[in-house]
Amino acid sequence: MDGQLGRLLHPRSVAVIGASSKPGKIGNEILRLLVSNGYRGRIYPVNPRGGEAYGIRFYTSIDELPGDIDLALIALPGEQAVDSLEAMATRGLGAAVIYASGFAEQGRAELEGRIRRIVERYGTRVVGPNCAGFINWAANLYAGFVPDVKPGEMALISQSGAFSAAVNHYLGVKGLGLGLLITLGNKADVAEWELIRHLGDQHPVYMLYMEGLREGEGRRLALAIKGSGRPVVILKTGWTEASQRALASHTASLAGDYRLFRTIMRGAGAYLVGDYVSLVDVAEAVYRLKPPRGGGIGIVTNGGGPAAVLMDHLGRLGHSPGPTPREVVDKLGFLRPHMQRGNPIDLTADGGSDYYYHTVKTLMESSWPGVLAVLHVPPSFVDPVEVARAVGEAYRDGGESKPLIPLFLGPRYVEAWRVLDRYGLPRMLTYSSAAEAIDYLLARGLRGGPPSR
Fold it and tell me: Is the pTM higher than 0.85?
């Protein structure tokens, strides 16, 4: 465990360097977020002109501060930020966040190099530069600019502040929050693998958005993931020449060999996805559901077309759902003659909530399948919210014995999501994310992965 990372994430004292009493200024917003979100440690705002805000009087220089402050939030431009970091580091600073851009991503590698030399000399840990800070609800510490991060349990570690805002918005649509959100920017110092190694099993699931890797970081990250014992879902950019050029001007990242990275991460038990919807959907699935005890994928649907699309996505991931076993077919004798008992089990358009309930409950109580996918596209005469309620009750009444992946498409799916949420079920937005969630759950079942929560 890195004691300085502990001072970063759970500081007893925070200095805001470049504090301001004027709303709309970065130094004011940092102070406002600290106070309004209930941080209970000591706060030391610094501004050469003095002043006060939110009932806290400003110090006029770093020299006036007590020594050994745990965390400095530095709201100053490039060179001033680094000068302040060094001045604080000589006084025993534990960690700092540098929000400013204008470092290696804009060709000023030497300025970023100064940060690394300060880290090496004094042991102060640095998040950034060129980042949006972080939020750690375990410490009531809102030290970042990503808006409206609600408390939760999962963790998001992202090189991009803008990307983390998009992920956080989608989490909010689902009614989910984060225990920790940390943006790393240029990663002059603190990297993903150190955070996961430090945090271990403190969070049930880790989501990572990664752009670049320094030499040896891929294997360090793999070791940290294995050591945490937690599911990790990764969105890694930089696998085309065009995206690599974009990254160079964003966080000065070197993307590395994507295929090698993917192989190493899968070997460590992590899962790679291609967009932020899958990042959240797959993470939610492994957060809410236990890994399956057996193999096989069962599909319940009210339309053959939607099921065929899902099976295509599963096929691209190497899965070919087999037929419904004879003993399970026999248990489905309550279905009407025109309803299909094979796999997919097609209840057809007139398969309402009663048919969904009894079918799902029967499958939950059977040894097959290992994972169950439930699709619904509502015709005009069926209420999808009632179907969602029936699926949730069948999942509960069936003992929650296996992972169930719901995919509700068409009108009122958000209302259906709210109902599914009450039963502890994940909500998938796309065929791709549903298939990937199934794939990762099966992989975790084969690895003997423990439940996420």
Answer: yes
